[in-house]
Design a protein that fits this description.
With 525 residues, the chain is α/β, with parallel strands linked by helices. It contains 17 helices and 18 strands. It has a single domain, classed as 3-Layer(aba) Sandwich (Rossmann fold). Helices cover 32% and strands 16% of the residues.
Length: 525
């Protein structure tokens, strides 16, 4: 899909007809009068006109919440395996008080859940009148096969209140429905393999067109994502279709490397089509569209793991994703925006299985790194760590997260004038340390979403102080492109590698695991 097709999502949608609600007397304020046109700037209110119709949210204290707003049509029928399309224009106001369904996926126990009618976003906006506020748009993680913006961990009200910003969270197609490519699908349109990425662009376009009506500034949008959402954020930084849709970007525990080529993605697609029972069909796309969503998701499924790469992720197709994002950063062909990137100290601490002996550790390293294993074992001998398992956690954390974050910061610095910042979250908030995703409740302030023995987690004073520091940094960065926390967070310099650290007390350090990251740079250039 080209840039003009993507911009079509901003055009006023469908039929504007429909009766006014009971008791309405002023036609200038009815849903019918405002529905599905690009709205004028305004302060947040209970009812907000948008290109998706009149959105009816709810006020709680000092914060409006607008939940489950459709930003694109349900990708069903002919729209399955197709670029996102503008939603139909509703004839009545849209009740936006309930989170939308998650996109189809398999739960950790293998149960199918979700609905294809999932292309929704959520908006939290402070009620107080103010100059146009900065906007933060979040892309959730889950290896692009799981997760949802409806997760209570991502509720945006506390972050919005802490920084006086507007927070938006987005659902997008996952797994085979969002990131599958096959020659027969590519013959229909060039969106094959990148449907989920195009959903994210469509959501950003919706924000650009509508957020002023919620009191937001469409010229001051920060895109941030974690894990696969961080990787997708980097993909969008490198995507021509996202140019001008955000001014700042934050990559939390994400990567800018490792995306498949179209040829590699279509090999996965061949396996998927065979597993779906559509190989050899004269109309493979028609066969795939005739399946239920569950049948699609169960055909060649993938697990959400941080230890191995998922087969379902954005692909380098030469158009939507012209080159690998890291290469775009180095070449300077990306969208030049203020950039923040970081990782956690013990990313794989909850994912690595038991490794009882040094021999078992060496076997794991051999299995993971093949011909490079002897060099890895020489640099990370088990004897240097409390346990063999701790050694493998460090190996996989450094190679997959911490050192790539340094590479991303260096690449982003290479060819842009906009500032770059790096962080390192090392506060041991769990028994396994600073594990993957543990910074999220600190960012969103959603500790109560974490259940411990059936009860909401009760944060300590230190937890709350760290959360306040992170929220200050994230939201000030969203407002100005410069994090304004204490101590001062220096802009990134390749030579010294200055990094903001989040421990019991936030600080700043020059060089994070420098010798280890130098090792990985020479091992895997």
């Amino acid at each position: 899909m080209n840039r003009l097709a993507l911009l079509a999502l901003l055009v006023a949608c469908g039929d504007h007809g429909g009766a006014a609600p009971d008791g309405a007397t002023d036609t200038a304020t009815t849903p019918d009068a405002f529905a599905c046109t690009v709205p004028a700037p305004a302060a947040a209110a209970e009812r907000v006109p948008t290109t998706s119709g009149m959105i009816h949210g709810a006020l709680s204290g000092t914060m409006y919440a607008y939940l489950g707003i459709p930003y694109a049509a349900p990708p069903t029928g002919a729209l399955r395996f197709a670029p996102p399309a503008a939603p139909a224009c509703p004839s009545a106001e849209v009740a936006a008080t309930t989170l939308g369904p998650m996109c189809p996926q398999l739960a950790t126990d293998g149960t199918f859940e979700g609905s294809e009618d999932c292309l929704h976003l959520n908006v939290w906006a402070p009620a107080a009148a103010e100059a146009p506020r900065a906007v933060m748009v979040f892309i959730h993680g889950g290896a692009n096969v799981a997760g949802s913006a409806s997760d209570p961990l991502f509720a945006g009200d506390k972050l919005a209140a802490a920084g006086d910003v507007i927070v938006v969270t987005v659902d997008y197609r996952l797994g085979q429905l969002g990131f599958i490519d096959h020659s027969s699908l590519a013959a229909e349109n060039n969106a094959a393999g990148n449907y989920g990425l195009l959903d994210q662009i469509a959501a950003l376009q919706w924000v650009h067109a509508n957020i002023a009506a919620f009191g937001g500034d469409p010229a001051n949008v920060t895109l941030f994502g974690e894990s696969a959402g961080g990787r997708d954020t980097c993909s969008l930084v490198a995507a021509p279709g996202a140019v001008g849709l955000f001014a700042h970007a934050i990559v939390e525990s994400g990567s800018c490397r490792g995306l498949p080529t179209r040829a590699a993605a279509q090999m996965v697609g061949d396996t998927f089509v065979t597993a779906a029972g559509c190989a050899g069909n004269v109309d493979v796309p028609g066969c795939l569209r005739a399946l239920t969503a569950e049948q699609v998701i169960r055909a060649n499924p993938a697990n959400a793991s941080i230890l191995v790469s998922t087969p379902y992720q954005p692909e380098i197709d030469g158009t939507i994703q012209p080159v690998e994002p890291q290469a775009a950063l180095v070449a300077g062909t990306h969208n030049h925006v203020a950039f923040m990137v970081g990782a956690n100290a013990d990313e794989t601490g909850s994912a690595v299985p038991a490794i009882p002996t040094e021999a078992a550790y060496e076997q794991m390293v051999n299995t993971t790194f093949g011909s490079l294993a002897s060099q890895v074992l020489a640099h990370y001998p088990a004897a240097n760590f409390p346990t063999p398992r701790a050694a493998y956690v460090r190996v996989t954390t450094d190679s997959r997260f911490v050192c790539p974050s340094r590479d991303i910061a260096r690449a982003a610095m290479h060819a842009q004038a906009q500032p770059v910042y790096r962080y390192f979250f090392q506060y041991p908030a769990t028994a396994n340390g600073a594990v993957h995703g543990i910074e999220l409740p600190f960012v969103f302030g959603t500790f109560s979403a974490i259940m411990v023995n059936g009860n909401p987690f009760m944060p300590t004073a230190t937890d709350l102080a760290i959360s306040a520091a992170i929220q200050t940094d994230w939201t000030s960065f969203a407002k100005t492109g410069t994090p304004a926390g204490t101590p001062t967070w220096p802009t990134y310099v390749v030579a010294s590698d200055p990094t903001r650290t989040f421990a019991a007390t936030p600080g700043e350090m020059d060089g994070i695991r420098t010798a280890d990251c130098d090792f990985w740079d020479q091992l895997v250039p």
